[in-house]
Design a protein that fits this description.
about 140 residues, alpha/beta, 5 helices, 4 strands
């Protein structure tokens, strides 16, 4: 039996995930695993995969990727900003997609898979490192 871990999901992306993870590549992954690829903001979108940088900057989906002339994946509305304001869909990290595909089933979009949580955790780690460094300097 073939598994389709993204069946029933409609996914959009924003941000640059590196040369090996182009928007075209992500589109193929999503569609081969039963999901639908979104080309504009709509109530059908269930997940927005975003980089931390685009989440912080409230960037439009499709941002930062050179796109072929025949395929337009740029969402014209500021996706992150719109999602936060209207709570239209879940904003997740690339890791959520990758881990869901690797495990063969859809993971719950919680904890570290939520971009907001990943940013919050990164700030906490940075704060702890800074505090540890200060304490080390005080001790001499």
């Amino acid at each position: 039996m073939v598994r389709f871990p993204l069946a029933g999901l409609t996914i959009a992306v924003t941000g640059d995930f590196g040369p090996r993870r182009s928007h075209e590549t992500l589109k193929r992954w999503v569609e081969k695993n039963g999901g639908h690829w979104a080309t504009n903001i709509s109530k059908e979108i269930t997940h927005l995969i975003s980089t931390k940088e685009d989440y912080r900057n409230k960037a439009p989906a499709g941002n930062h990727q050179p796109l072929p002339a025949v395929a337009i994946f740029v969402l014209t509305i500021h996706s992150v900003k719109m999602a936060l304001k209207l709570k239209l869909f879940t904003i997740v990290t690339f890791d959520w997609l990758e881990d869901s595909l690797m495990k063969g089933f859809r993971l719950a979009p919680r904890g570290d898979y939520l971009v907001a949580r990943a940013i919050k955790d990164a700030k906490k780690v940075k704060r702890v490192r800074k505090q540890t460094k200060k304490e080390t300097i005080k001790r001499g």
